[in-house]
From TrEMBL:
The active site is at 32 (proton acceptor), 172 (proton donor). InterPro entries: Aldolase_TIM, Ribul_P_3_epim, Ribul_P_3_epim-like, RibuloseP-bd_barrel. This is Ribulose-phosphate 3-epimerase. The gene is rpe. GO terms for biological process: pentose catabolic process; pentose-phosphate shunt. Catalyzes the reversible epimerization of D-ribulose 5-phosphate to D-xylulose 5-phosphate. Its EC number is 5.1.3.1. The keyword Metal-binding applies. Its cofactor is a divalent metal cation; Mn(2+); Fe(2+); Co(2+). It comes from Streptomyces finlayi. It comes from the Bacteria. Keywords: Carbohydrate metabolism, Cobalt, Isomerase, Manganese, Metal-binding, Zinc. Signal peptide: none annotated. Pathway: Carbohydrate degradation.
Length: 227
């Protein structure tokens, strides 16, 4: 079944605990950490992740858009994240970092910006629990989906199948009712949605609607047949 991860970036930051509870029923809560260096925006850090992990039963999917990921990512596991995504562009030693995240008890995930190809990282895939393909330039919510990323999603799904991996394939950026089916058909199975969830009148219903669309599209997709 498709997983839907609402992005708290599109929520009201003055009411984070309530906004987290508004999407209980979602698979994970996506938490965008930005440092104003790796991306031109600043959001939140370890203390807020720690507070959020106590405020909701939904596991936290922390997306770190920060420099020096090797140094900081392990602290997000300690703060209570169930999954920690670092950007390969910001990690000096991605294999060592993925192993450290797993050893500390979280799922290890690696993200690729739109201009970063998947092919150089094929041999790293067994070290990961999830790969995140950015479908916007990281930094802000509410941007338009880059459909030029669909071939990369397809190629990554082929690599996952070729190696027989259990790796989850996440997409993040501009995922909505109009784009989620294309992502699912291309091979994504974890979908981050910020504005499409928190911009809806009923965020929990938006999660259910997106999941139903993704499941229907996956059922039509050829990649899912050999699953
Ligand atoms: O990581 C990011 C942006 O850098 C995302 O997680 C956004 O928060 C997604 O927001 P929408 O594009 O779905 O509004
Ligand atoms: Fe994100």
């Amino acid at each position: 079944m498709a997983q839907i991860n609402p992005s708290i970036l599109s929520a009201d930051f003055a009411r984070l605990a309530e906004e987290a509870k508004a999407v209980e029923g979602a698979d994970w809560l996506h938490v965008d950490v930005m440092d104003n260096h790796f991306v031109p925006n600043l959001t939140l850090g370890v203390p807020i992740v720690e507070a959020l992990s106590k405020a909701t039963d939904t596991p936290l999917d922390c997306h770190l858009m920060i420099e020096d990921a090797d140094r900081w990512a392990p602290q997000y596991v300690e703060a209570g994240a169930g999954s920690v995504t670092f950007h390969v562009e910001a990690a000096a030693a991605p294999v060592r970092l993925a192993r450290e995240i797993r050893a500390k008890g979280a799922r290890a995930s690696m993200a690729l910006k739109p201009a970063t190809p998947i092919e150089p990282y094929e041999d790293l895939l067994p070290e990961l629990d999830m790969l995140l393909i950015m479908t916007v330039e990281p930094g802000f919510g509410g941007q338009s989906f880059l459909d030029i990323m669909l071939p990369k999603i397809r190629r990554t799904r082929e690599l996952i199948s070729k190696h027989g991996l259990e790796l989850w394939l996440q997409v993040d950026g501009g995922v909505s009712a109009t784009t989620i089916e294309r992502c699912a058909e291309a091979g994504a199975d974890v979908f981050v949605a910020g504005s499409a969830v928190y911009g809806a009148g009923d965020p929990a219903a938006a999660v259910r609607g997106l999941r139903a669309q993704a499941d229907a599209a996956t059922a039509r997709a050829s990649w899912a047949c050999d699953h």
